Structures are given as C-alpha cells and as structure tokens.
Hints:
Radius of gyration: 40 Å
Number of helices: 13
Amino acid sequence: MRILIIEDLPSFQKYVEKILMLEYRKELYVKSADTLEKGLKIIKEENFDIFLCDLGLPDSKGVNTIEEVRKINRVTPIVIMSAKNDEETVMGALRKDAQDYLFKTEIKRENLIRAIKYSIERKKLELKCRETASRLHAVMDSIPDLILIMDFDNNILDYYTSDSSKFLFEPEEMINKNLLDLIPDEFINLGRKHFDRAKITGEMQQYSHRFERNNIERYYDYRVKPFDNDKIMFIIRDLTKEKEFERQVFESQKMKAISNLSGSVAHEFNSLMTAVINYSELIGQIDKTSPEVKTFAGKIFDTATRAAKLSSEMLAFSSMQMFNPVEMNFNEVINNMRSIFESLAGDDIQLSYHLDHTLPNVIFDTNQFRQIIMNLILNAVHACKNQGKEIVIVSKAISSPKGIYSVLTVIDNGIGIPEENKSRIFEPFFTHGKGTNSTGLGLSVVYGILMQHDGFIEFESGINKGSKFSVYIPKKVK
C-alpha cells in the first residue's frame, strides 16, 4: 500500500503513520510532506494508492489544497484529515473530489483504515463509471439515429442524436410535446398498431415509412421498445440515402436488362435489313425491271437503310457496336463541329463555348464522341425551341479518387424535364418532347457509348429551369 501524507503537525503525522504500520506492516510504503509544495513535488515524482491531506497547511488553506492536487493527479483518491468540522468545509471538500472527510479528533485505527479502503474502492468505481460513460458517449456519437424517450401517453421526455440535420424536426422542438401533435394522421394510423403491440408484448417493433414536411421527403426506419414498465424508446433512423441507392441499383439493373434485350433484337434486325438492302439494290440493277418497280425498289432501299441506322443506334445503346478507340481531345472535335452546331441552333439560339485548353487527352472512339455531342446538342436545341435562347458547351478536367476525368457539359435554358420522366430519359425510344421527329434513342445512345468506354453521364433539370448534361470520360493511357 503506497500512501502519501500531507500534514504539517509532526505529532499527528507520526500518529497516522503508526496506525498505518500496524495495519499494513511490510506492505506499507509511506511518505510525508509538511507543506503543499513539498507534497506536489512528491506527487509529480511517484505514484500512490491514496493521499491523506490536511486543509490547514502553511502554504494552502481550505479546498485549494484539493484543487492543486487535482491539477497534477485526477485519479488517486483523497481523504481529508482536518480539525475543521463545519458543514460548509466538509461539503466543499467533497464537491472538489475528496472521497472522504475525517475530523482529526475522531480519527482511530478503525475509521481511518475503513476510510482508506472505501475511498480506494469508491474511486475505482467512479473511474470505471467514467470510463463506461465515456465509451457509451463514443458509441452514441457514432450512431446516426434519433432516439426519443417517451411515456406511454406518447409525451416526449428526452432525446439523443449525434446529427439532427437528417431529421425533419429539430429535437429541441419535440421536448415536452406529444408525438401525436407533431406528425400527420397517416403516420399515426400506421404507427399506432406497432406502439400498441410493443406496449402489450414488451418486445421491439419495427417498421418503415416515408415522411414529408415542408416539401422535403425522407424515408425512415422506426423501432419501438418499451422499458421501465412505463416508458418507450423510439429509435428513428434515416434511410433516405439507402433508398436512393436502392433506386439507383434498380435503375442500373433495368437499363442493363433493356440494353441486353435491345442488343439482341438489333443484332437480328440488322441481319434482316442487310438482306432487304442487298435484294432491293439487285432489283434496281436488273435491266428488264420496269421504271415503276425500280422506283419501289429505291424506296425499299431508302427505308431499309434508315432501319439499319436505327439498328446501329440500338447496338450503340446496348454496347454491342464495334468501336475504334484512339487518343483524342474533346476540344479539337468540338471546334471542328462548331459550324454544324450553329446550323442546328439556327438564328434564334445563342451558342457559347467555355473550353479548358489544358484538357488532357482521352482514349475514345472519335466517331462515337461525335455521336455523343451531336445527340446532346440536338437534345438541347429541341428543349429551346419554344422556350430558352441559349446553349452553353463546357469542357474541363476534374480529379477524383478514381482518377482524372475529361468532362463535357451541355447546358440549356429550355423547358426542362418533368420529374416523372427523369428516371426514364436513358431508356431507348422514350421521348418527352412533343412535335419532334426524335426516335427517343439520342440519350440512350450516349448512355450505351459511355458504358463501352468506362464513362458515365449525370444530369440536372427542372421544369422551366433548363437542363445540364455532363459526360465524364476517364483519362487513359493506350
């Protein structure tokens, strides 16, 4: 047992040491100091199991002694031995983290040893509780949930969350309010049976629900768990990101399925159209064929050629089209096609260019890149026909954890895309433009070509707010 005595009266110091020797014998290591300064020096140099301190030292009076010790050592328990026995001094010492307080006139072997043992155990328990509380706080801070503590009448008593931004209510708004006053009736009707079942069975109940407030929609997972016979823990977890990820996975799988089907159909269709084109050419070349039949053969040839082109676009969407990647630069292709873009835009639509001249080269099929930008420009022109007068073409490079990308962006201030159509714009043959000759393959072709080159496309759009399409192509070394 290692004990430090900070006491200025030599006679009382010897009295305490004698009690300790009788109790601990050879197991005892004791040091004494008659001033706080000497005691603090020893504390800095050695470790002890307990400090026995007087509050009336020559260089320190009252609880200041405890405060100074705790600045150096916050772990070792302190037992106060003092001639002062007024309540204010006693309570002040205990509030400053003394484990026990003994009056000098009442100190005997029995109560001193008991105070030492209890103080050591109490300090150990206190430190363990602090460690557990610290660990619990760390765990709670890592949990993204909102936890509400309620009574059985749904009154909110307390809450905990590490991030309130994910929830449509500030938790402070909810304290001392009834949950039923904060949520819509449809939510009440859905949740009531789960709350009732939890109260009856005592078991956790779980359900999910979409929640909307102030035009903000979020998805939550709810867990209801009774405890203490009259309280409920209501745990709310934000699943909005997970739901969005599920939607993206579903869309990706849907596009893959459509792509596979389109590729298979286009391949067979292309074979049939090749035969039709060849035979229509042969009919037109036979000398004995009448002019009328030759005219019909020519129309068959033209129609079959257009069908073959459509088949080629479907193959591009399905990533089954042959391609020839070469080292190229976006800006060179864009500059070479400016006259074509201006012809498509006409006099009513203004074209502007913001090209990054430090743009790195990429490995890409040049003809397919022309297809991409032509389809994006056509899409923008159609959007600006009845509304909007500007199309902006931007090229830039970005760096991401996955590498460097060259980015082509086409921005228009046209009619925009309705919310209900956004999930379908890359589907083949889907078009939301009315009164156009669009086949609905433009954006699906862009999507398919990018898949072949490990690229991707993003877009932003809103009704009467225009659209922004960005194509990302990774920089690659051939």
